[in-house]
């Protein structure tokens, strides 16, 4: 955007002192982007805005279109319909190397016989960056990914985590404005993966680069992201901050895909104050009212296991939703104990309690359950 000059004089100058909000231009914008492979609609009219400097995760089940979206942004494929913009400028028709966007793939193909430093320097060599600057920038990258001292090691002699760091350094050395990462941690074992999640986040925050990170692991998306874009069947289902998606899922799919949820199917029985009353078999359960529900409509209540409190002898009397149930199963998970509690014939609730602070209710015990009004989300229809 150019600030332009004007012949109108003083009055315009005052307007010009208001800073132009460059940050408002998203790093990446998709408008109505669709892509079909033969009969498969990989993406259907997707609209997406990725704020500058954001760590955004594309999350969804296998085959939902995450890689396709990334490849379209990178320029390895072209969309059938719609427009893609990078920092406000359309990149439609531009080859990958003209987009100021770089990609780290799952199989991070390093050159095995080259050293760490040579691998990282490779993109700069191609761009014919001089030797001195190359050395300086490789040094910066080695420090960034904490691989100082390993620059002369052959890539074939690295551990998985080290190789991942080299791949990341190589992708960042050209200072792309946007980095696309397609399940870059999938090959690592759980412990290393957790460590690399924190590392990636730190690196992203240090550089302020926009990261678009593909994962099908909801816990990974929750820990790492500023924003999550949840996808299903080639569509964007919901976009928001992790806590937003977790606490306010808009669909049954979202409530199940992110975290665990008890789903209770019923029908709207009426309203009480600001609550919606939903009849689930013999139970009547209150949840936050949302517009669009009429009496008799199908509704699904979603309650997170950790938001259900368990007690006995009236200890939960202050809570609006209280049920009595019988403990059917007890599963020890280390830091948590998970209980399956039957609250009506054939209706079970999963309840989780801290192993350190909760009570270890025995199988067969009758207990009381309760939850705060805002622990429930009322959703329409199972699909
Ligand atoms: N080159 C291609 N030719 C034909 N079909 C394709 C091609 N690429 C992707 N598809 C199909 O498009 C759909 C979306 O694929 P995509 O790879 O984007 O999914 P994904 O969300 O990345 O899945 P995963 O989590 O398994 O990596 C799938 O049904 C896939 O089979
Ligand atoms: Mg994929």
* CATH homologous superfamily caption of the largest domain: P-loop containing nucleotide triphosphate hydrolases
Radius of gyration: 26 Å
Largest sheet: 6 strands, mixed
Contiguous helical run count? 9
Termini distance?
43 Å
Second-tier CATH architecture of the largest domain: 3-Layer(aba) Sandwich
Give the low-pLDDT segments. Answer: 1-17
Domains counted in the coordinates: how many?
Answer: 2
Please indicate the percent range of residues in DSSP E strands (runs of 2 or more). 25-35%
Global morphology: elongated
Identify the bound ligands.
adenosine-5'-triphosphate, magnesium ion
Instruction: Order the strands across the largest sheet as they lie in space.
Output: 6-7-8-3-9-10
The overall pLDDT average reads 89
Name the helix and strand elements from N-terminus to C-terminus, one letter apiece.
Answer: HEEEHEEEHHHEHEHEEHHEEEEEEEEEE
Q: Structural class of the helix and strand makeup? A: alpha+beta
Helical content stands at 10-25%
How many β-strand runs? 20
CATH class annotation of the largest domain:
Alpha Beta
CATH T-level fold name of the largest domain = Rossmann fold
Q: In brief, what are we looking at here?
A:
With 383 residues, the chain is α+β, with helices and mostly antiparallel strands. Strands 6-7-8-3-9-10 form a 6-stranded mixed beta sheet, sandwiched between helices. A 5-stranded antiparallel beta sheet has the order 13-12-11-14-20, with no helix packed on it.
């Amino acid at each position: 955007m150019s600030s332009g000059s004007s012949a109108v004089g003083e009055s315009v100058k005052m307007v010009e002192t208001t800073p132009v909000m460059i940050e408002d231009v998203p790093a990446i914008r998709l408008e109505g982007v669709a892509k079909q492979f033969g009969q498969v609609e990989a993406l259907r009219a997707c609209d997406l805005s990725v704020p500058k400097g954001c760590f955004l995760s594309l999350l969804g089940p296998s085959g939902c279109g995450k890689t396709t979206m990334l490849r379209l942004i990178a320029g390895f494929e072209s969309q059938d319909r719609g427009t893609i913009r990078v920092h406000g400028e359309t990149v439609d028709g531009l080859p990958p190397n003209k987009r100021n966007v770089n990609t780290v793939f799952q199989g991070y193909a390093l050159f095995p016989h080259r050293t760490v430093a040579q691998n990282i320097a490779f993109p700069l060599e191609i761009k014919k960056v001089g030797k001195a600057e190359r050395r300086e920038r490789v040094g910066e990258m080695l420090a960034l990914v904490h691989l100082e001292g390993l620059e002369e090691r052959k890539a074939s002699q690295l551990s998985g985590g080290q190789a991942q760091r080299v791949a990341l350094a190589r992708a960042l050395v050209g200072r792309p404005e946007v980095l696309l990462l397609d399940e870059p941690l999938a090959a690592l074992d759980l412990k290393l993966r957790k460590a690399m999640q924190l590392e990636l986040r730190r690196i992203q925050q240090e550089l302020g680069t926009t990261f678009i990170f593909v994962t099908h692991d909801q816990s990974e998306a929750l820990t790492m992201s500023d924003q999550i874009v949840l996808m299903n069947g080639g569509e964007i289902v919901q976009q928001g901050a992790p806590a937003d998606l977790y606490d306010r899922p808009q669909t049954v799919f979202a409530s199940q895909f992110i975290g665990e949820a008890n789903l209770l199917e019923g029908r709207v029985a009426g309203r009480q104050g600001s609550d919606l009353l939903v009849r689930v078999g013999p139970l009547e359960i209150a949840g936050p009212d949302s517009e669009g529900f009429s009496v008799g409509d199908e509704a699904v209540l979603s309650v997170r296991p950790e938001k259900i409190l368990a007690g006995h002898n009236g200890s939960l009397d202050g809570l609006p939703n209280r049920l009595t149930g019988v403990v059917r199963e007890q599963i020890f998970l280390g830091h948590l104990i998970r209980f399956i509690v039957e609250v009506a014939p054939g209706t079970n609730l999963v309840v989780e309690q801290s192993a350190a602070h909760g009570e270890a209710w025995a199988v067969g015990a009758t207990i009381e359950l309760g939850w705060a009004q805002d622990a429930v989300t009322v959703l329409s229809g199972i699909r």
